[in-house]
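Per reviewer request, we include the raw input and output of the structure prediction for the construct analysed in the revised manuscript.
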Amino acid sequence: MGQVTSLFARKVVGVAGDDIDARAVLHVAGLELDGPWDPSHMLDEGDFYRMIEMMAEQMDIMSLPLNAGAAMRPDEYGALGLAWKAAPDLRGSFSRVARYWRLWTSVARYELQETDAGVLFIEHREGPRRLGMRISIEADLASGVSLSRQVSPRPFAPLEVYFRHAAPDTLAHHEAFFGCPVHFGADKDAMLLSRQSLSEPNILGDEGITRFLDSHLDQELAQISDVPALQMQTKSEIARALSEGLPKMTDIARRLGLSARSFHRRLAEHGLSFQSLTEETRREIAIAMLQEERYALSEIAFLTGYSEQSAFNRAFKRWMGVTPAAYRKSLR
């Protein structure tokens, strides 16, 4: 189970106003209404999603992630928020998120990827697409746009925005907020950014402050055990590779920027093995997909790296004691 900063929970509840029972909603996430706004206080992702889903029972949440994103302020993120503001340009701001994301969450990973059309800012998040996750992802990208508009000297908007989940009843709210086309049912959660907007100097950009903050953030990152991060990154890359067949350790190590030897050593230091993480990832994906009727068993077998459904059936029975078909039937 991953974790996310309690700042996100408090912001989401704050923008909902009187439409919800704020005290009861925060209690679901283990927070007190009058408690401190401490971004270092982390919540289990399941509690965070349940909190959002409870809010959905009390209000129309179509615009909630956009309003939450618009309410975010750099100073609320501690040293990381200051580093965003002090970076020389927006590329530097987004690069710091891609580098230091572990300081505020272990449920998502962020990446900048160069393309012919511009630069993609991608959010990688695994797991079943429950409502709480969908709202959280939309709020994340909305936050990126809002924070960019607060530090950029010119009006800022992405070129395009992408979400993997299905579209809401209307796109008007999302396209008005982002100021660009918004595509749902895409193959990624991401924003396409222009190189020109990323190169604009930030209003308060300062190289000296940036170096100081980077040093501070490096120390904070070093104090966090890398076990959860290494596990999550490894399983995330395994999940992405499974549709192409069973991944090799050398390939996953390369995707993580490590040599195979260094990767094996870091796993072994924490009592982990690549084989066990691969097996765990396949099992978790299979269980999640079996809860969705739209996936055929043959498709689940393929997406978990099995060339034949019979091999998938045997593996699943070894994991769970029943066949995939029997497991799905039990869910009904």
